[in-house]
Amino acid sequence: MSSDFSHKRIRLLAILLLSTFTFPCWAFDNNRDGFAVGLGVGAQSTTVDMSATDGQVFTDEYGGAAASFRIGLGFTSQFLYFFAVEMSMYEATDGIDGELVSYMSSMGGVVASYYFSPKSPSAYVTGGVGWGNLSIESASFSDADDGSSFMFGGGYEFMNHQSVELNILSTSIPSKYVEIESIDTASFRLMYQYLFY
């Protein structure tokens, strides 16, 4: 990853965090407008497509855990925006030497949510774009590559702060290996979200 790209990422993060804290923070009063922090956990199923330079595509599917962290604010009680980190984690056995390998595909970026009602219960739609990352970790090897990502889905806030969300998190990671062009992931995630507001 180039130095210029890193500086742009840090500047964007700083702008988002400063804008969050410079707005009036009448948060934690059971209204969605103002400062908000969200935490999510759940399960996911991930499809991994590796596109080879000869045109072949190799596909695998993995199940595992999902998590999210969102910090931002509500411009109104129906429209919120966040800086978010969205993650899908899964494990597989390496076919070469039988090692257990841990994978994490993630997105760091901007997410917006629109609630159809200013008060719960309410359905909502959510989506975002950002930087994608695929990290690989085993006892003898670790690696990580960056790319692009997006997330979209919908949910239902069944009572203040608590919701169930179904979303898809997709990453596209250019490969540094000669024989592979890109590694694309698509995670279907069912999550419980708790939003402090």
Write down the CATH topology.
Answer: Porin
**General shape:** elongated
- Separation of termini? 36 Å
Number of domains: 1
Tell me roughly what share of residues is in helical segments. 10-25%
Radius of gyration: 18 Å
Placed side by side, the strands forming the largest sheet appear as 1-2-3-4-5-6-7-8
Average of the residue pLDDT scores: 87
Continuous helix count: 1
Structural class: mainly beta
Number of strands: 8
CATH class: Mainly Beta
Q: What is the helix/strand order?
A: HEEEEEEEE
Beta content: over 45%
- Weakly predicted, low-confidence segments: none
**Biggest sheet character:** 8 strands, antiparallel, barrel
Give the second-level CATH assignment, the architecture. Beta Barrel
3D structure, described in words:
The chain is mainly β. It has one domain (3-196): Porin (Beta Barrel), CATH 2.40.160.20. It contains 1 helix and 8 strands; from the N terminus they run αββββββββ. It has one helix at 3-22; strands at 34-52, 57-74, 79-93, 100-115, 122-137, 142-159, 162-174, 180-196. The protein has an 8-stranded antiparallel barrel with strand order 1-2-3-4-5-6-7-8. The longest helix has 20 residues, at 3-22. It starts with a helix and ends with a strand.
